[in-house]
Amino acid sequence: MRSCPRLALLCALLPWLLRAAAPPRPAQPLPRRDPHDPARGADFDRVYSGVVSLSTENIYSFNYTSQPGQVNAVRVYVNSSSENLDYPVLVVVRQQKGVLSWQVPLLFQGLYQRTYNYQEVSRTLCPSEATNETGPLEQLVFVDVASMAPLGAQYKLLVTKIKHFQLQTNVAFHFTASPSQPQYFLYKFPDDVDSVIIKVQSEMAYPCSVVSVQNIMKKDFPGEQFFVVFVIKPEDYACGGSFFIQGKENQTWNLQRTKNLKVTIVPSIKGSVYVKSILLSSLIFFSFYLGCLLIAFVHYIRFQRKSIDGSFGSSDGSENMVASHPIAAGTPEGSNYGAIEESSSSPGRQMSSSDGGQTCQSDTDSSVEESDFDTMPDIESDKNVIRTKMFLYLSDLSRKDRRIVSKKYKIYFWNIITIAVFYALPVIQLVITYQTVANVTGNQDICYYNFLCAHPLGVLSAFNNILSNLGHVLLGFLFLLIVLRRDILHRRALEAKDIFAMEYGIPKHFGVFYAMGIALMMEGVLSACYHVCPNYSNFQFDTSFMYMIAGLCMLKLYQTRHPDINASAYAAYASFAAVITLTVLGVVFGKNDLWFWVIFSAIHILVSLALSTQIYYMGRFKIDLGIFRRAAMVFYTDFVHQCSRPLYMDRMVLLIVGNLVNWSFALFGLVYRPRDFASYMLGIFICNLLLYLAFYIIMKLRSSEKLLPIPLFCIVATALLWAASLYFFFQNLSSWEGTPAESREKNRECILLDFFDDHDIWHFLSATALFFSFLVLLTLDDDLDVVRRDQIPVF
């Protein structure tokens, strides 16, 4: 009887020992679970309905086989008619390597505590890809539906296999997404493609959507593939849309924010396109170097022929070299006030002849100071007498020692180099940081590119926008070489005591020209820096030097016939600094603040009046707090009380038109308050420059002066190039004034070589237009090189 327990134990262990000793059998597919088990076997593409409650929970199991080289994705749809947020339907999906859960209704939190509920929710499960090493893989998915509702909550469940989960190259794919039903798809790089462009389009701007790319860099994903994810925002404010006031709490949004999208993935341009674009850009601008060399060579040949023939300078010193007095037609017959006879015997002419022995000295003589001239006892009274004559000539306003004036104008050159270095270094450091952040985070909303034509190279996201600024640098350097050649030839003429260099033509001072060349080069550098990552924070990088270029051009145009009374470099650059400060304030505060526009308009009008008074009286009207009171008194005395004709009619006409233009700008800004304040300020500068240039050319022709072929060609080329470049400038391919989504709405495809967009063409044309504009200022008065200065009118 004692052996019975042992026998019973042996009988119990015998089946287990037999199974352990049996040979192993091959693995069988996972059997379908019994319907009575807690996990119910379920089929794809079949709708399951049910009710879950505090005491009822339903579990569904789905299984499928994944073949090597095949990517199978599963999508789970759950719908519930319940709007009770206290007892939602809870869905938990379990896979081999992950768990995903959500609730229905799905709640989204909006701005200002707004809530948006969705009763239909779907999700795509992470796919598992079989490989040749693993062979076919059996995939098992459990979907657990539950709720804590005491009375139960109804639901519907649908699980499907996605047929078009993998995107194909150059094949458009259409789909629909909503906030509760995001979508994502897989893309695999073909063997011959290493970078692609993802294009997403929709017929409607709203609802707001977000596109993200997972594993954005190929090297970070060994499988050479990435996912494209599409999410619809519950509100549109992130994309610049208006706020929606919901009518009641817990409102459902099943069909109200559905968006139809189209995604297309195309290969990026080949490396040969980069090479072709770089070479073509370089060749175009280097052709300007070749053209300038050809023109210089032709001038050299003509000069040599004239030297051999002995015709050059044959009329040297002759008074009958000029056929007629330039402004004699406007001079009364019996009047000799300000005429050449007096001018030739004036202290200005005597000083000009007495300076002849000094002009051959070096301009860099540190012993030369402006006080050497201004210490004359009667200099101030002499200025008042000469500069207030009715008819002024260049000899009246070129009385100072040439070396002193040249040294004064060279400060423009050295100051702008200092400004450029101190300005550019922090800019370069900042844009490198911007580009690094954009590359590391992958956030494409940091920088406002034209994404439809943004071609990366290395760490740069939009290399084409940077390359197109090459023209500013190359043409700016070419202009410096042209100015340097003229400077050297002029120095040689002075050293040879050439009377044409000393007493004929416009006095040659090249300091502002050098500053203009540096400004053009820096415009290209800073524009390239801006386009590394264009955004709201760095808009002033390139616009700053645009203001300086326009200002320097106006100063140079004024200096041409007013060499002794032009603004100092320190005052000019201080004025530019004030303008840039105003621009920054305008961008920050000028969008909606009326007080800023009132203050700015008042400053604009007052500055226009102050400068007009100073220009009208040739710098002899002292600028201080009493300038407006004195100007009002003069206006009342001359125009109201005596009703006399303006003493300087030409200047008065220019200043009246100029003030009307500037007051119109001030009124326009006050009424409309343009959002792009930087462009508004630039427009003021450009309009004033064009107005002054037009006045100068008209007065030049009115004074019987000629336009030589080169300046005439440059004027025509400048007009045509500016007209074409402004057309491309106003295309507006992106804008940091709005949201990133609004900026993308303006993006366009490339239009040149499949590499450059409209804004790149603006860079090319504007650089060339600026170059020809500079040449206009440099050559405009070349016809006066054989005219005595006491016969060149001032206007």
UniProtKB/TrEMBL annotation:
According to the UniProt entry, its GO molecular function terms are: double-stranded RNA binding; RNA transmembrane transporter activity
- List residues traversing the bilayer: 278-301, 412-432, 466-484, 512-533, 539-558, 570-589, 595-619, 652-671, 677-698, 710-730, 761-780
Per UniProt, the ranges with Acidic residues bias are: 366-377
Give the membrane topology: Multi-pass membrane protein
Give Gene Ontology CC terms: lysosome; plasma membrane
Domain of life (superkingdom): Eukaryota
Alphabetically sorted, this entry's keywords are:
Glycoprotein, Membrane, Signal, Transmembrane, Transmembrane helix
List the signal peptide residues: 1-20
What the entry lists under Pfam families is as follows: SID-1_RNA_chan (PF13965)
- For bias kind Polar residues, which ranges apply? 355-365
Chain residue ranges for the region called Disordered:
323-377
Q: Where is the composition biased (Low complexity)?
A: 343-354
Which family would the database say this protein is a member of? Answer: Belongs to the SID1 family.
Q: What is this protein called?
A: SID1 transmembrane family member 1 isoform X3
